[in-house]
Amino acid sequence: xxxxxxRETGFRLQSVFRKLYxxxxxxAKEDIMQELKNFSPEIVKKPxxxxxxxxxxxDIETCRKEIPEFxxxxxxxxxxxxxxxxxGICHSLSKNGTRFRYSIxxxxxxxxxxxxGLEVLTIPENTWAIFPCVGAMPNAIHKGIDFVxxxxxxxxxxxxxxxxxxxxxxxxxPQDLEYKSFVWIPVKKKISIQSPEKMYPRSGDKATVxxxxxxxxxxxxxxxxxxxxxxxxxxxxxxxxxxxxxYPTINHDRLTIGKYCxxxxxxxxxxxxxxHTQESLSTYPFPIFFEEWGLDVKDITRAWxxxxxxxxxxxxxxxxxxxLLSGVKIGDGAIIGTRAVVTEDVPPYTIVGGVPAKPIRKxxxxxxxxxxxELKWWNWPPEKVKExxxxxxxxNLEALLS
Length: 402
Known about the structure:
Elements: H1 13-21, H2 26-36, E1 42-46, E2 49-59, H3 63-75, E3 87-91, E4 99-107, E5 119-123, E6 126-134, H4 139-155, E7 158-160, E8 165-169, E9 180-189, E10 208-210, E11 220-222, E12 227-229, H5 238-242, E13 243-244, H6 248-251, E14 255-257, E15 262-263, E16 268-270, H7 290-293, E17 310-312, E18 317-318, E19 323-325, E20 329-330, E21 335-336, E22 341-342, E23 350-353, E24 358-362, H8 366-375, H9 382-387, H10 389-394, H11 397-401
Parallel strand pairs: 11-14, 12-15, 13-16, 14-17, 15-18, 16-19, 17-20, 18-21, 19-22, 21-23
Antiparallel strand pairs: 1-6, 2-4, 2-5, 3-4, 3-8, 6-9, 7-9, 8-9, 10-12, 23-24
């Protein structure tokens, strides 16, 4: 009898699995892959179910020898009277990745006897990729598992979705050339991470763009995955329609927007040339009309007050038709309310609204904000963000930190 080991991507169980199941020769492996290359598993969603199991914990380094001994001892034990060994289940990898639990099991129904030494395990609801393996043990399992991990998973539209893998045995002689067994792998559809350089991140949606891909002005800098939605104008015209009074060759002012920001339709960034000087007794911009009034063109900047750059942090949400004036700094994680006019700096993770914008409340307690600012998850590689997406979306800081 053989077993199937669980493999979460990156876990050391993968190396154990390879030790036990890798085909003996290169030629044999090539023959297997040629035979299975056009094979597709059955993708099936199964509800939660329970199994009656005998379980033992194993060490990654010694399981190659110990797992077969476990099967041998089981077949000769009184437990074999209650469990025929329909399933081999690998689960519960330790946090440090050095130990795991392996169970020999049968389906369990409520009311069944649970003798000493056995336990009832719950297999959670999952979508499974189920691979039939035809042939004598152990070579048939070698074929199936080698194919799953070396050929199918790297190319499939699915990825591993859990740390429970199942090998199912059917009645019959496992040495028969027509013997049939199954490998179950929990899967989920792959989430395709679009390149931050791509213009349109959503299929069929031309109103939403990754800003980094449409901004050409070197004095406007935008981080990865920051998006802008505009259902009125072409969002690709962001520089022309949304960044106003911006003359960096004269004022040397810049717009900087961090990563993973969300900017709603009509948000505006109004720069220094819109700030008529208040040092003059008149608000009229005489220096702009230097020819009319016989002024020196070199003094044109005296028409306005230069308050500096506009800086927007990471993971900032800027609401519909909000306005940010020159010189303001928006902290990471802040939210700018609809049609707010921001005239002053906004602290990290603070919600502001109104005209002029005033703080409404902090998004999280100070201790949480401190941890998030220390963590700076937006600087992680996209693959790590994807890995931690569930923790981010559910607000589970502890899981995000683990």
